[in-house]
Specification:
alpha+beta, 4-stranded antiparallel sheet, 10 helices
Length: 231
């Protein structure tokens, strides 16, 4: 994708956060946006960096993570195309508190704070959508904390494998293939599990004839049976 030919207003208009804005508003907002490419492994944000913009992933994937004093990594969130991060810190005027790193060659759109604030003052609908977006992020984090406290490791892994399955899929059973977007070690960290334990759970599910593992491709043999396992 050539950033010079990229239609920023059109891209913004496809995002839920900006979908109610008219073309003139999108063009005004796009004047406060910047596109930048990041190579795989490149750091987007360090702890302590100023957050004067929030970022939207156009292509690729970004990992948000923290480091313990002994260097142990904890993955907080994986952001794919259309996903955004750093909105709350941008509003608070606080420096970044986590690391953000490109997991693949990525194209990111940065939306500057001054442009966002101008639209918030001009359009109440935009303010409500921004608030809704931040609320969804908070709800997701609360759900994660609840899962870590109340669910076993097996239940967390099953929940991750079934995260994109609709209710009717689970009710109907049947086989489906899930492709892990990142390494098993990264997913394990996201679920607050060790890589060794994550692998043991996959072996357990495979031995129970619920899944078949082929590197990053996991064939779920029966969605309904997997959803009921360990509950």
């Amino acid at each position: 994708m050539d950033p010079r030919a990229f239609d920023i207003p059109q891209f913004l208009g496809r995002l839920p956060l900006f979908s109610d804005l008219a073309r003139p508003e999108l063009e005004r907002l796009s004047s406060g946006c910047q596109l930048r490419r990041y190579t795989r492994g490149e750091v987007v944000l360090h702890p302590g960096d100023p957050c004067d913009a929030f970022h939207v992933v156009v292509t690729g994937q970004v990992k948000l993570f923290g480091l313990s004093p002994d260097g142990h990594e904890k993955v907080i969130e994986l952001i794919g195309p259309g996903g955004s991060f750093a909105e709350a810190l941008m509003f608070l005027g606080k420096p970044c508190v986590v690391n953000a790193q490109a997991l693949a060659d990525s194209l990111l759109l940065s939306v500057q704070r001054h442009a966002v604030m101008a639209e918030l003052q001009a359009d109440d609908r935009f303010a409500l959508r921004m608030l809704a977006g931040l609320s969804r992020r908070l709800h997701g984090l609360v759900h994660d904390v609840q899962a870590y406290a109340l669910q076993s490791g097996v239940q967390r892994v099953i929940g991750y494998l079934l995260r994109d399955q609709e209710t009717h899929d689970a009710a109907g059973g049947g086989a489906v293939t899930v492709s892990l977007p990142v390494s098993k070690a990264t997913i394990a960290s996201r679920l607050s599990l060790t890589p060794e334990y994550f692998s043991r759970v996959l072996h357990e599910l495979e031995a129970a004839q619920l899944i078949e593992v082929d590197r990053r491709d996991i064939l779920i043999l029966d969605v309904q049976r997997l959803a009921a396992y360990g509950s």
